[in-house]
Amino acid sequence: MIVANGEIIATLPLPLGGIISPQPVEEVARDLEYLDQTVSEMGVKIAHPFGFLSFLALSIVPSLKITDLGVLNVDTWSIIPVQ
Fold it and tell me: Residue 72: what pLDDT?
């Protein structure tokens, strides 16, 4: 979901476990591309930021976490550049 000035401007519902959509893959791909394009226009410089974010929540990536300062390497307690 993308929110600007308190208004929802784009969404990609993933109602099945928060990771899967019942929609055809073409629709999901189109909607995800729109999300990526929209945040890029808002100044986000990371390629495919929603894919990036989805991996940080997985337990298979225990050493990386998102903070208000950026991506944190928990093992070294340092911020990782993402550009």
Answer: 85
pLDDT of residue 71: 83
CA distances from 78 to 24, 49, 65, 66, 75 (A): 40, 20, 11, 12, 8
* DSSP letter assigned to residue 11: -
Please name the residue ranges forming H helices in the chain. Answer: 25-41, 49-56
23 token code pair: 């929609």
User: Which whole number is the average pLDDT over 43-64?
Assistant: 78
Look at the block and give the residue holding tokens 């225990």. Answer: 62
Pairing of strands 70-73, 64-67: antiparallel
Cβ(82)–Cβ(73) under 8 Å? no
